[in-house]
Specification:
The chain is of the alpha+beta class. It is built from 15 helices and 73 strands. α1 runs antiparallel to α13 and α10 runs antiparallel to α11 (832-852).
């Protein structure tokens, strides 16, 4: 009985201490959100986690030196700058991981919040006093905050009939002066606080100030000022703004911006809204609560100013109606933390809250396809719960007004079902959406060798904009064929719209698809094995009757090492009508592919945020294109008139400073390019552009003779601190002979010579530089003998032909255009095979013509590799003299002269040591492309023995990031010293060992990312640091290439983060199991193991005597990988509840084996009641931790739980 009472006492004590008010509780973490989808954006326009503080005292509190933390071991994880929180005021800190501490701007912690629960505390400036803590907060819900309930009182200060004045500006002369209280608005139009116009029907009677004459087809912007009075401004801690608006607005209180919706990042006197706010929603008040900081309001006269935004200026209507309440904070209830369904970041908390969350609804049938009508049952395990559902995606009806589920639903045709659970005294559950596609006999029997995509819009037509909701299912069977009547591999709500320019007139449409979550927000997912992203394209080849021209071009680019979008052929069914999916909904062969977008797995450039407007941040990343403008965009032009479209950041998001920077950069580039000294490698064009990317873009465009090249669909990008890069290539459907204009069908001639549009003048000028021309020849020589050899290109066509052989027949039944002219065909093929044959013949002729423009490069009798000492090889060429070098130099000097070390070839060359040969042919002043090979007599005795690719995060506060601690360890396997001079790492990282660097026999050495960071963690002794590399090791795995001093291949392998999770950011490195491993096995996971020691063993041999056992957090009784109150409860259950509970590790009892080591908190060699008491003291009373510490340790007899 006593044991049961102790158990109950300890459990009750445990569950009653979720909140620790610490010292006096004067400053609280009053509210936080760990899953922010739509609640509030930070200054970068991103929805990040946030933490709200509230000063419950009667005096201001200086927070300088205070800290926020999510780790009880690191109480000073993020330290406040010099800021003060006023009495009864709120302060918002974004928990974004961005680590920003400038008091003049928004504050951001260096950590993010976990939605599955963790520790969160506010710590005083002494670094030890916990002012307030959530010891282990509960599972968090999307867009629902967590914290304390609070009373408040409110009174209206701007309501219906409030006097106001409005004005439509005609220039920028007012700036923002009109938002200030003292501004003289006597000349503005007077009325009540409602302005707008209506040229059709809908808003009549809603507004008092009619702006039709001043706004329509003239300006998207209108200003409104609404004065109001306050008797005691100091008592107001929050204002509640209510807005009806069409299409956007920015609101100001006494000149201070407090809220914006659908507004561009930078406002002008003629700005338009960024998107349309539908009329049905525009007449419904949206409500926002905004915290008031000191000085924002004043006793007496104040002004609410609204910058109203329409879209576009020719819109048939416009509406702005504001209302404003002043709110005074009341008592805050700190007895328990609640889920707050109405988040109020930075302002008074809601007085209503819930202690639990409703469980998600359960569907009796998963989403997918079906062939017979069925009954769909919805259920919930929550007693007394109400399930609400809808058969529509429309967001116009809120979920609380959906139908109440009472009996199973009859599903007999294509259907979308959305449901949500409302349990008593609980936050509503997340919304769950299922879709069901009914197949008839024709579609139920349909199979393909390609993946299948089914899109259903449930009766909606797909416009060019905006996106409409739909549902997409992707079928990709593991076997040789994909049956449509099978479970989908992927399915999601989507937003879909038509895309394309000239192709928009074809009956076979192109679509842009964005993955949507339950809130209509985009999210990332992997589809068909592609890297995770939200934006995808379904491209439907039509005028390209081969179906593969784009796929071929993008493949050629990727094969030569220049990123182009990934592609996959699919067959598509589209259902826009209501009813069963039949074969009549088949729309043919499509290419599922990526959209050009900034992403670490697409264009891996820095993210340029609206707040980044100064050097070095403002220098990247940009994506631009030469192309037709999107509707509503104006783009920009350089000083020389080259016109560009903004891609990233978008035109409505890019700031004035960012526009000025990129335009200035391009102006400077063009000035250098078209200047007299344009060939100067330091001050000429090469200082501004990645020359190799411009060469690749030229060769790919000319090889395919892309008629859109240079003048349309021509992309460029610029990373932070980097040069302008040409590419990725895009839109090659009018290529490879598929054009009846601009000589597109002719295999001869440079297409560049036929156009002067867009960016073509850049390449024309570049080709006036002999060095650019020679580099182009060199690059063509290299790729035309390997990746872009005619045989390789034709083999790629044949390979795709095998893939498409079956599906193309169905495609051309659906679209019977074989033998029919479709713009801009030159050759009208009677059959698909005839089209392929014609295209292959064209490709052969085109490649031959390009090669014929250049002097033929020499041929080596042996390609290089490992050879015996004394081996001989020869060099031959049909035209010109042969020059070669054996010292790694180019036989040709810049400018065209013969290099001093170049040798005129006269006969066979004998190899006695590792040798690199570089050779060219020369005829008069003309040089061929360069050919090189390495002959290896003595392979370098080097290997890579350790890779720290994703180090653990540093202990805060630290000036370094986790990737600063990367390193690669190499080892000299031989019994003699080895000269590293000229050896190098490429791919992934870049590093060349300097002249004279020697690695002693049997020695280990490391190259590091950041020497200062490395030294701070490992010290300056014990590790032979050979240098710092550039670039980063990819946390997800990548290719590493290690070459010897004369390009001898030492290692070329790929590592992967999924091999051993403990090496992926958890403190352990990858260690080579056996230094004698052959190079061809380095990409196998069995070749590697996790390091024995935390942080690895750089510069020395990793111990072989690995500790047995699994990785565990000491005290983790319930094996969830965390140490919290649930472990104390779990240990109590193990001690007293019995009932067949299984100990977490080996040993028949708690006092034996790994279980005793894991759960013996106090180190007394036994497990008893003292151990949960000891743990509770650690968790809630600042007692000592487990005797083994708090980090992961290996415990023999236990499984792996943490890393």
């Amino acid at each position: 009985m006593l044991q049961r009472q102790l158990l109950l006492l300890l459990v009750l004590a445990a569950i009653s201490v979720p909140v620790n008010l610490g010292a006096a509780g004067q400053v609280l973490i009053s509210e936080f959100m760990a899953s922010n989808l739509t609640a509030v954006r930070d200054e970068d326009g991103e929805y990040t986690d946030w933490i709200e503080l509230y000063n419950a005292s009667d005096a201001a509190v200086d927070l300088t030196g205070w800290s926020l933390t999510d780790d009880p071991q690191y109480l000073r994880k993020w330290v406040f700058p010099a800021v003060t929180i006023g009495a009864g005021k709120f302060m918002l800190v974004f928990a974004s991981g961005k680590d920003r501490r400038n008091p003049a701007y928004q504050l951001h912690t260096n950590f993010q919040l976990r939605a599955d629960g963790e520790y969160l505390a506010l710590v005083a400036a002494d670094g030890t006093t916990i002012m307030h803590a959530y010891e282990d907060y509960a599972l968090q819900v999307e867009d629902v905050s967590y914290g304390f309930r609070q009373d408040s009182s409110a009174y209206n200060v701007v309501g219906p009939g409030a006097p106001a004045r409005a004005f439509v500006p005609i220039d920028s002369s007012l700036g923002t002066t009109w938002t200030a209280p003292a501004f003289n608005d006597a000349a503005w139009t007077s009325g009540t606080a409602s302005m707008g116009y209506e040229r059709s029907s809908g808003y009549q009677g809603l507004f008092d100030i009619d702006l039709n004459a001043a706004m329509y087809n003239i300006n998207c912007t209108a200003y409104m000022r609404v004065p109001f009075n306050l008797p005691d401004a100091s008592a107001i801690s929050t204002v509640r703004l209510r807005m009806k608006y069409d299409d956007g607005f920015v609101a100001y209180l006494n000149g201070v911006k407090i809220m914006s919706k659908n507004a561009p990042s930078e406002l002008a006197y003629n700005s338009c809204a960024t998107v349309i706010h539908d009329d049905a929603y525009a007449v419904i008040f949206e409500e926002y609560e905004v915290g008031i900081e000191a000085g924002m309001l004043r006793d007496g006269a104040n002004v609410l100013a609204i910058h109203g935004l329409n879209y576009p200026a020719t819109s048939s209507d416009f509406l702005i109606i504001p209302e404003l309440d002043a709110m005074e904070a009341g008592a805050i209830d700190t007895s328990a933390a609640y889920y707050l369904n109405d988040p109020t970041p930075g302002s008074i908390n809601s007085s209503a809250g819930y202690l639990s969350v409703s469980p998600a609804p359960i569907f009796s049938r998963e989403s997918g396809v079906y062939t017979s009508a069925f009954s769909l049952a919805l259920s919930s395990p929550a007693p007394g719960a109400v399930i609400r559902y809808t058969l529509s995606w429309s967001a116009s009806v809120p979920s609380e007004n959906w139908s109440v589920y009472a009996s199973p639903l009859s599903i007999s045709q294509n259907a979308i079902v959305r449901a949500r659970v409302y349990a008593p005294n609980a936050v509503p559950s997340r919304i769950v959406t299922h879709s069901y596609t009914r197949l008839d006999a024709t579609t139920a029997a349909f199979t393909s060798n390609l993946p299948l995509v089914v899109i259903n819009t449930f009766g909606l037509s797909i416009p060019s904009e905006p996106r409409i909701p739909g549902f997409m299912q992707v079928f990709a069977a593991d076997g040789a064929r994909t049956p449509l009547n099978s479970p989908p591999q992927f399915q999601s709500v989507i937003g879909i719209e038509q895309r394309g320019s000239s192709s928009s007139g074809f009956p076979k449409k192109q679509w842009s698809v964005e993955l949507w979550d339950e809130h209509g927000l985009d999210y990332n997912a992997s589809i068909l094995g592609f890297p995770r992203e939200s934006d995808w394209i379904l491209y439907g080849p039509y005028s390209d009757k081969s179906l593969m021209r784009n796929v071929l071009a993008y493949g050629f680019s990727n094969e030569i090492g220049t990123y182009a979008v990934r592609t996959r052929f699919v067959e598509v069914f589209l259902k826009t009508a209501v009813g069963t999916l039949t074969y009549a909904d088949y729309v043919g062969v499509y290419v599922f592919m990526e959209k050009i977008k900034r992403d670490e797995d697409r264009l891996d450039i820095a993210k340029l945020l609206p707040s980044q407007n100064t050097q070095p941040d403002v220098t990247g990343g940009y994506i631009l294109k030469v192309d037709r403008l999107d509707p509503g965009d104006v783009g920009f032009s350089t000083a020389r008139g080259t016109a560009f479209c903004y891609v990233t950041p978008k035109e409505l998001e890019i700031t004035t400073a960012q526009k000025a920077y990129i335009k200035g950069y391009l102006d400077a580039f063009e000035s250098a390019l078209f200047g007299a000294a344009f060939t100067n490698p330091t001050t000429g064009y090469a200082a501004y552009i990645d020359v190799d990317s411009f060469i690749d873009h030229f060769l790919l465009t000319e090889l395919a003779k892309n008629i859109d090249g240079y003048r349309l669909s021509t992309f460029f990008h610029k990373d932070r601190g980097g040069k302008l890069v040409s590419g990725p290539i895009w839109d090659f459907n009018l290529s490879l002979g598929n054009a009846n204009y601009a000589d597109g069908w002719i295999t001869t001639g440079w297409y560049l010579d036929l156009t002067s549009s867009g960016a073509a003048p850049w390449w024309k000028r570049l080709r006036q530089d002999p060095e650019f021309l020679q580099k182009t020849i060199d690059r063509w020589t290299a790729v035309s003998r390997k990746q872009l050899a005619t045989s390789a290109m034709l083999a790629r066509v044949d390979a795709w032909a095998d893939v498409l052989l079956e599906s193309q027949a169905r495609n051309f039944v659906r679209w019977p255009i074989l033998g029919v002219y479709v713009w801009p065909n030159w050759y009208v093929a009677p059959t698909w095979q005839a089209e392929l044959d014609w295209m292959k013949n064209w490709m052969s002729g085109r490649a031959s013509w390009i090669t014929g423009n250049y002097l033929v490069a020499p041929t080596l009798s042996h390609p290089g590799g490992i050879v015996p000492s004394g081996f001989k090889f020869t060099i031959s060429t049909p035209t010109g003299a042969i020059y070669y070098t054996l010292d790694g130099a180019d036989p040709r000097l810049a400018g065209g002269a013969i290099a001093p070390s170049a040798i005129l070839y006269s006969g066979a060359i004998t190899v006695t040591d590792n040798t690199i040969v570089r050779t060219r042919a020369k005829l008069n002043a003309q040089w061929s492309g360069i050919i090189e090979a390495t002959y290896v007599v003595n392979p370098p005795p080097l290997t890579v023995t350790e890779i720290m690719y994703h180090p653990r995060e540093p202990v805060p506060p630290s000036p370094y990031y986790d990737n600063d601690f990367e390193f690669i360890e190499i080892h000299n396997k031989s019994a003699v010293p080895y000269d590293l001079s000229g050896a190098r790492f490429t791919n992934g990282i870049e590093f060349t060992f300097p002249e004279g660097m020697v690695l002693e026999a049997g020695a280990y050495g490391v190259i590091v990312k950041n020497l200062a960071a490395f030294t701070s963690r490992y010290g300056s002794a014990g590790s032979l640091v050979l240098g710092q590399y550039t670039g980063f090791l990819n946390n997800g795995g990548e290719r590493i290439q290690f070459l010897g001093p004369v390009n001898e291949p030492i290692l070329d392998f790929v590592y992967n983060d999924i091999w051993y999770p403990e090496t992926d950011g958890n403190g352990y490195s990858l260690v080579l199991v056996n230094p004698a491993t052959a190079p061809n096995f380095f990409s196998d996971p069995e070749t590697w193991r996790p390091s024995t020691e935390i942080d690895g063993s750089p510069g020395r041999r990793d111990p072989d005597d690995l500790e047995p056992g699994g990785w565990q957090i000491p005290g983790d009784a319930n094996q969830d990988g965390r140490l919290d109150i649930s472990d104390a409860v779990g240990l109590l259950r193990l001690l007293f509840a019995g009932g067949g509970l299984v100990p977490p590790c080996d040993g028949p009892t708690l006092g034996q084996g790994g279980t005793r080591t894991l759960l013996d908190m106090n180190g007394d060699a036994t497990v008893n009641l003292a151990d949960p008491v000891y743990l509770l003291a650690y968790l809630f009373a600042h007692g000592p931790p487990h005797v083994l510490g708090t980090a992961c340790v290996k415990i023999e007899g236990c499984p792996h739980i943490c890393w």
